[in-house]
Every structure is written in C-alpha cells, then in structure tokens.
Amino acid sequence: MNLDPPLQLRVFDLNCWAIRYMSKLRQERIGLIGDMLSQEGFDLALLQEVWSERDYCELKQKLVACYPHSHYFKSGVIGSGLCVFSRYPILDTFLYQYSLNGYPYMLQHGDWFCGKAVGLLVMKIRGILFHVYVTHLHAEYCREKDAYLPHRVVQAWELAQFIQHTSKGADVVLLGGDLNMHPKDVGIRLLRGWTGLRDAFADTEHFEGCEDGCTLVPANCFTSKEELQPFPLGIRIDYILYKGLSHFVKCDNLVTTTGTAPGKSIPYSDHEAVIATLCVKRRGEAEGARIRTVEPELVDVVNEARTEVRVGLHAAERQRYSNGRMAILALLLLLLQALMGLSSLAGWDSQHPFPKFSFSLLALLATVVLLVSTALYIFHTIEVKMLQGTEEQMRLALQALQDQLGSM
Amino acid sequence: MNLDPPLQLRVFDLNCWAIRYMSKLRQERIGLIGDMLSQEGFDLALLQEVWSERDYCELKQKLVACYPHSHYFKSGVIGSGLCVFSRYPILDTFLYQYSLNGYPYMLQHGDWFCGKAVGLLVMKIRGILFHVYVTHLHAEYCREKDAYLPHRVVQAWELAQFIQHTSKGADVVLLGGDLNMHPKDVGIRLLRGWTGLRDAFADTEHFEGCEDGCTLVPANCFTSKEELQPFPLGIRIDYILYKGLSHFVKCDNLVTTTGTAPGKSIPYSDHEAVIATLCVKRRGEAEGARIRTVEPELVDVVNEARTEVRVGLHAAERQRYSNGRMAILALLLLLLQALMGLSSLAGWDSQHPFPKFSFSLLALLATVVLLVSTALYIFHTIEVKMLQGTEEQMRLALQALQDQLGSM
C-alpha cells in the first residue's frame, strides 16, 4: 500500500551564456534570470555557462530567500560554468572532469579553458534520495566537419559511466544540461541507452514552447541565423533527463521559453530554458523495482560510438606525429645554428650584417617552434592515451553486453 | 541461516618500479614478478608503476593461463602505471584522474606526466559483487618540506569521495595501492575515516614480513638509505584496505616480501609486496547490515585536511601571481624592442654589431619567458580553482558531518 502523496518537483535548466566581456547584455540578462527564478520559485535550477563567479555571487545573493542552498563547481581556467540553486539542502557534491575537452590552441573556441565537467549533487527531498547531475559538453562548431565529435563521444561515455557508477544508492536520478547533441546523435543514444535515462521532452504529458522542444531557435535574437539555416525550427541540445530507481518518475509538464523574456525586449540567453514538472512517487510493492533489460540495439550504439573514438584516435596519432616531427626539426635547426655560431665566434664581425639578424631571428623562431611543438606533442600523447583507454573500456562494455544478451 | 561457505581471497599488491631506461634491472624484475605471480596463483594482483605497456603485455602473455582477465588503465603521457591481473572476469572498469598531480616543470619528479589516477574494476566472484580500486598517489620527495602535500591531500580526498560515490551497489570494497602516505598521515586518516575502509595490516590475525608492515625498507638494495635514515625500520606506504557492505570481511593473514626474492640476489622492486588473505562471508540475517556511525574525530581530520588545502591554495596563488607578473614584464620588453626595432629600421646598419646580437638574444629570451610564464599562469590558475573547489567541498562535508553528529 502506498500512502505517501506523490512529490511534485519543478526543475529549471538553462545555458545562461554569461561570458564576461563577450556575451551580449550579460548583466541585464543575469538580472532577468535572477528575477524570474525568484518569482517562479522552482525547486531546483540547474545553470550552465555562468563563467564569472561574480555573476554566481550576484544570483546567490538575490536568490537566498527562495533558494537557500546553492553550489558552484570550480574547474578549468575560468570555472566550469556549472551551478545549482536549490530549495532543498545539498548533502554532498562531487565533480568529474572529462578527460578530453578540445584543444588549448583553439583559442577561438575556448572549450578547453572551461574544464568541462559533470557535477553531482546529493539531495534528500521529503525522504527521497536524489542524485542530481549538471553538465555541459563540448560545443559543436561545424556539424558537417565536426572535429570535436570524438571528444564529445568520449564525454558522453564518461558521463554515462559516471552516472551509472555513482547512482547506485539513489532513489531518483536527474540530469540537466547543455549536451550539445541533437536527440538522434550517437552520444545521446549512448548516454540514454547505457544509463536508462528518459527524456523529459519525449515522455511529457503536456508540452508548451518552441516547436519540437528546440532550445536553440532562430527566433532568439542572440542565435546565429547562419548556423541554424539547415534547421528552420532550431535544434534541441538542452535536456532534462531522469530515471527512478526505487521510485517512479514521470514528467507531467514540460515548458521551454520562446525567445524574449515576458514583457522584455531581450531573451534570457541565446539558449531557451527547459522547465520540467516531475511527479515522483514510491513504487508500489506489487510493482517491485524495475529490472532493466538490455536492448540489443545498444550493442550497435556502443559500436558506433567506438568507431567515432577510433576516428579520433587516428587524428590524434597524426597530430602527435606531426608535432613530434616538427619538434625534432626545430631542435636540429637549433643545434646546427649553435654549431655555426660556435665555429664563427672568432670571425664574428662578418661583412654582412643581414645574415646575423636573420640568424638570430631564425633561432628565435626555432626555439618557439621547439617549445610549442613539444608541448603539443605531450598534449596529443595524452589525447591518444585517453582515446585508447576509452576504446578499450567500450570493448569491455560490449563484451559484457553481449554476455548479458547471450544469457537472456 | 548462512549456508554459503566463506570465500577466501588472496590479494597481491606491489609497486613494481618499472620505469623504462630508469629503473634498475627492470626486465629481470618484471620476469621475476611474472614467475612469482604465476607460481603463487593469487586471485587478484594489483600492480602500480608498470609504466611501459610492453611490460604489461609481457606479463599478460605470461600470466594468461593463471590470470585470464587483466586490465591496464591508460592515462597521462606515459600511462597511469596501474594494472590488474585477475582469476575472475572483469565486468566493467572506470578511471578517475586526480585533478591535481604535481607540476609539469618538475621534470626530475615526473609525477605530472604519469596522470595519477584511481582505477575501478567491477567483478563478481562467487556471486559477490566486488568493487576493486587500484591507485598510486603523488610521491613524497621531502618529508620535512613537502611541497606536494596539498596535492596529495586533494588526491586522498578525491579518492575517498570517488570510493564513497561509486561503491554504493557493491558487496565488498577493496583498495590496493601505493598511497605514498605513512599510516598516521592526514591523508590516510581522511581516506579511512571518510570511507570506513579498514587497514589489512591493522586488522590481520597473522602477520609475517617486514617489521611494522613496512614496504619501503633499508634492507631492500634499491631503496635510498639516505632518505630512509629517519626511519630505521623503513616506512609503510603500500596498503590493502577493505570494507564489507552486505558481506563481512576480515584479513586472516598478511605477508610482505622482505628484500630479495626467494633464491635470488635481487628484490622484485624497490617496494615490498603486500599479500593479504581475506575471508569474505555473507552477514547473517541477525547481524544485519553494519550501520556506520560517524566518529566525532572525523571532523578534526577533515579540518586538518582543509588547512593543508588552504596552505596549498596560498602557495598556488603566489605562483600564479609571480608567473603573471613575469609574463607581463616579458610582453612589455618585447613591445619595447619591437618599437625600437621599428624606429631604427632606417638606420639599421649601426656601427656596433654587438648590440644587434644582444638585442636579438634578448628578444629570444623575452619570447621564451612570455610563452613559458603564460603557460604556467594558466596552469596555476587551474590549480587555484581546483584547490578552492576542494576546500568548498570539504566545507560542505564538514557541515553535513556536524549535522549528522548533532542529530545523533
């Protein structure tokens, strides 16, 4: 018999696009987000891209009455951008930084500097143990030729594994964030297939908001119309996912914002917010705990992901090789110059002043090339190791999956 | 009623000291280790410092009959050095890289390049779910003035948190590795207090081996006698720790090797191996699951660890500041030189050849300093973020601890 009334939980998720000096109208928008969160009084607000801790502190101060508990996950050079505001106490937190996250020399993209990660918060709400995850995966800058796809697949795999390994004791698992993947992308299928998480948009009873649940829409004045050209309705890359373990969870209602904030001329962010009303109730004894069966399609999904990782591995090996070669060439040039310098020390005052200058300039160039290529060689070696490690983990997972399917 | 006979598990742990080109008699010792593992037929062998994958493959080939299952954890530039050989199937693996692990410019120590991590293996042995962890923490190079203590404390905290968050579904938790901490060090007390792991050496019924269970002993011909001078018996830094959740675990027997390998003139490694015989049995229904009570001393331990993290934070902030200043100075010098160069372009053929050469040399130096200090500034900024994040996590943990103690 189940006497507990179901728990209604309102969860808010938004990529806030709050990069200091770069995001348009940042302060106004942070103000608007704070006002809205304060008015709406959600149970839980999961935010991404709050890069400046000052913005977080401003929000915290404004929201302390309505959301007395909050946490900012620090990582990378400028912070992970992940933070959470909650009506309920946060009992514990844990951060997992993705092992691969773009390249430090891609300054125009800058993902590497953010230390992309997944944050875990442990909370008890009316006696129910929630494991809440908030994350932000590597951005997709060019869908046709996505150089970051292997890194994003590794991140999706690590996210799935992190959730699987850390959620065993939970009653309910909740994940919110900007996954930078379309609903049918291999990373999402891998994440959902591996963890059994359900998509609030696909499961909801009532939906209101942008068509197809899109969260990056052309109607938003901050989005790039050019990038969204192949997708006239926009794309859905921000998600609220969940699963119940000892409890049963369903999404009663899902809402996205649609461009401008109510009564204002600007939107909250370049992304639309996702707001889910979840209904959580204890499983009746007759229902028992849901035993997850392995879907045979999952084997194909893991294989597909593994292929992407292998593609990334070949690219990383090529990069490592060309950086290593460059470092060796620069070193040889420097040695040659040192030899020439030493041999001509006696007759240094040559008649041609230009060679001396170009000689020094060449030495300067060779030194810079040597330093930079050595650093990049080390970086790509780490990348190779991590891709090999992930590939091996996936191989093991496939084996375990096939054993499970064989014994069914 | 408990009809299952208890499970006896023989676990082997060794830091193999197998660094290519650097460790003495590496190949002979790897051969010896392989022979011994093969003869002894342990259930589980947890190895550290197997840096070369070639050595791992050699061991794997030799041991395949006796240990059909094995895993090598890849990370860092030269691999994590962590590997496991097992008689029982490995169902899943997961790797957590510590967020801090020394400095890349400390080439003589080299820990940064190893990507120190903790590896998790999920195994089912006679129906009992084991979560086996293998790890290796940052080395201690100078106990009196240990610059790496804050990093090691962060690693111990992350290890404790990783074990706590990933072991909820396990029946038995097992951790083996070189923790580079003496038994009374703050990191060990934090790890044991936070996770409830028990020390095989402290709990065993029979012990045989080096006095006080030491694993780095002066009798070993590869250890540095000078470093061990303050500890005539040696030090104990390699551990097998365990806890039973649904099962009861005790250590029946613990053995360490003592210097040279039997019948040989050399030891297996510069560390002594630790071999535990564990007895695992299902808790009787009357016994129930052991409910862990929080020890009030744990508050002091977390506070002590937090102080160490704060000390590290101050040092990291100082380093970041001085590297930032250095980068700005180098940039100013380069700008000044560019200005001088431009202004004297017309009258370049000055009468003094030396200034031109030193001018170029100075530009070279400034460029190198600018590149290196910028990279270090970024590195120390990440370090500051991670130390701040850990300090905040510890603050939250303390609060939760105090709430728990208050409600007891």
UniProtKB/TrEMBL annotation, chains A, B:
<dbReference type="InterPro" id="IPR038772">
    <property type="entry name" value="Sph/SMPD2-like"/>
</dbReference>
<comment type="pathway">
    <text>Lipid metabolism; sphingolipid metabolism.</text>
</comment>
<dbReference type="GO" id="GO:0006665">
    <property type="term" value="P:sphingolipid metabolic process"/>
</dbReference>
<dbReference type="GO" id="GO:0004767">
    <property type="term" value="F:sphingomyelin phosphodiesterase activity"/>
</dbReference>
<protein>
    <recommendedName>
        <fullName>Sphingomyelin phosphodiesterase 2</fullName>
        <ecNumber>3.1.4.12</ecNumber>
    </recommendedName>
</protein>
<keyword id="KW-0460">Magnesium</keyword>
<comment type="similarity">
    <text>Belongs to the neutral sphingomyelinase family.</text>
</comment>
<feature type="transmembrane region" description="Helical">
    <location>
        <begin position="326"/>
        <end position="345"/>
    </location>
</feature>
<comment type="pathway">
    <text>Sphingolipid metabolism.</text>
</comment>
<keyword id="KW-0378">Hydrolase</keyword>
<dbReference type="InterPro" id="IPR036691">
    <property type="entry name" value="Endo/exonu/phosph_ase_sf"/>
</dbReference>
<dbReference type="GO" id="GO:0046872">
    <property type="term" value="F:metal ion binding"/>
</dbReference>
<keyword id="KW-0443">Lipid metabolism</keyword>
<keyword id="KW-0479">Metal-binding</keyword>
<feature type="transmembrane region" description="Helical">
    <location>
        <begin position="357"/>
        <end position="379"/>
    </location>
</feature>
<keyword id="KW-0746">Sphingolipid metabolism</keyword>
<keyword id="KW-0472">Membrane</keyword>
<keyword id="KW-0812">Transmembrane</keyword>
<feature type="domain" description="Endonuclease/exonuclease/phosphatase">
    <location>
        <begin position="30"/>
        <end position="271"/>
    </location>
</feature>
<keyword id="KW-1133">Transmembrane helix</keyword>
<dbReference type="InterPro" id="IPR005135">
    <property type="entry name" value="Endo/exonuclease/phosphatase"/>
</dbReference>
<dbReference type="Pfam" id="PF03372">
    <property type="entry name" value="Exo_endo_phos"/>
</dbReference>
<dbReference type="GO" id="GO:0016020">
    <property type="term" value="C:membrane"/>
</dbReference>
